[in-house]
Amino acid sequence: MGSPAKRVLRYEVAMPVDAFLADLSAVLPERALVREQERVAPWLTDWRGRWTGASKALLEPGTTEEVAIIVRLSGEHRVGLVPQGGNTSMVGGATPPADGDAVLLSLRRMTRVRALEAGSAIVEAGVILADLHAAAAASGQRFPLTLGARGSATVGGLIATNAGGTQVLRFGTMRAQVLGLEAVIAGGLVHDGLGGLKKDNRGTSLDQLLIGSEGTLGIVTAARLRLIPAIAERGVAWVGLDSAEAAWSLLGQLEEASERVEGFELVPAECLASVLDHVPGTRSPLEQTHRWNALIEVTAGRGEPEPPTATLERLLAPALESGRVADAVIAGSEAQAEALWKLRDSISEAERKRGPAAQHDISVPPAVMARFMTDAATRVEHAFPGTRAFGYGHLGDGNVHFHVRAPAASSRDWAESGEGKAVSRLVHDLVTDSGGSISAEHGIGQMKKDELARLASPARLQALRAIKQAMDPRGIFNPGKLVD
Ligand code: FAD
Ligand code: MLT
Ligand code: ZN
């Protein structure tokens, strides 16, 4: 008696997706609806390999109008859409749920640079960050945001996560680069904010609501982004330090002496060793191993009297003399500068290859981060014997990636185990007690949804849920991410 009822239930659950896809196939061009599972499969697992979802198809619209049709029909059928750009999310944000009830919506075919002017560019959501850098450079300008995944991450993903990266110190996060958005919201309505208005106070800003909303409120289809004049030259240095506190105080001195410190990235000995072990073509920049390292970038615009390498020499000499910096090397060519940046940008890849770890993307007030990292590492290693904890990354922004490596011989999915989760809860508790954030730049996605619900203030949760309910009454945008 029980099994026929179960069959009926399964049939009813499967039907909305099938009916949605059938309706889409009648109105979308063939290339925009991919049903072959071998073409869908590569996009079902996240970059870290922690989540794998299911999707009966891959939607690949080429225009905003096609996105609008998809969103309107998905609302009518109440079928979830999982927006995806480069699929480099660190929090499973672009991975569909495993039940197959939602459909992947890739923006990767929308790659047009619609306009490029002095001071701004209008680009579509699927434009890859490295391509945006190249387009800006070709016009004598630059787009002042970069990160290790620039070869894959897209404008839409960067906006949806309010991405940070290694130039936030001087230029801010993605939010500071967005001058206007085009997006498709519930019902398939198109919001056009690309006009380039400097002032616009028609109530709450839709652009600002969408930035950092992780695809849960609408689909970004294009953006007007800020461009700034190209730099003439950059100087890059790698320094060895005895403590994270010394790194923080060095940054303060550098910023006091120069307005052109663009990058200051902290690299502990563990991360450097991991990169040297796992990333071919890398070598240690300093002869000795130091407990901490910092990668520093200083730039110069056209017509500036002092070359940036000379600025670095001038700034670092007293620190070396006084022993506040243990050792330092300044890149003598662009190739050497690239090699130093490769050491920093390869940390995620090297750590992924190295073995299981629980990753945390945290911020606390910048001035207390150095102390926080040391104290938190001691607390974690004491509470969970055999683990190794350290932070790396954007020290100047008060944001580090706090990794806790699993004890030897732990399974690949240790971070998802009881112990791995307990480690993350402890780290997040310590962050919250310090007035910090459990997601500084990667977002919440599916990875931190429970932790957000556990630790966010009632005010934050109420507002996030109310906005979600108002903007997405049918629950179609990125189901299962950020908040329910
Ligand atoms: P995806 O991973 O495809 O999607 C990310 C989120 O955005 C998902 O929730 C997705 O649903 C949503 N989304 C994607 N496109 C759209 C759209 N058009 N409209 C609405 N929602 C959309 N992040 C940092 O902030 N700083 C770093 O320094 C940094 N370094 C990284 C280094 C490496 C090696 C890697 C792998 C990742 C790094 N990241 C970093 C994380 C990641 O690159 C960023 O989150 C990036 O913004 C994601 O872009 P994407 O196109 O890959 O988006
Ligand atoms: C980085 O800064 O390298 C990243 O945001 C990625 C990471 O967390 O490893
Ligand atoms: Zn980062």
From TrEMBL:
InterPro entries assigned to the protein according to its UniProt record, in alphabetical order: FAD-bd_oxidored_4_C (IPR004113), FAD-bd_PCMH (IPR016166), FAD-bd_PCMH-like_sf (IPR036318), FAD-bd_PCMH_sub1 (IPR016167), FAD-bd_PCMH_sub2 (IPR016169), FAD-linked_Oxase-like_C (IPR016164), FAD-oxidored/transferase_4 (IPR051264), Oxid_FAD_bind_N (IPR006094)
Domain FAD-binding PCMH-type: 51-230
Superkingdom of origin: Bacteria
Keywords carried by this UniProt record: FAD, Flavoprotein
Keyword Secreted in annotation: no
Presence of keyword ATP-binding: no
Annotated SUPFAM superfamilies: FAD-binding/transporter-associated domain-like (SSF56176), FAD-linked oxidases, C-terminal domain (SSF55103)
PANTHER family referenced in this protein's UniProt entry, alphabetically: BLL6224 PROTEIN, D-2-HYDROXYGLUTARATE DEHYDROGENASE, MITOCHONDRIAL
Family, per entry: Belongs to the FAD-binding oxidoreductase/transferase type 4 family.
Protein known as: FAD-binding oxidoreductase
Organism: Sphingomonas swuensis
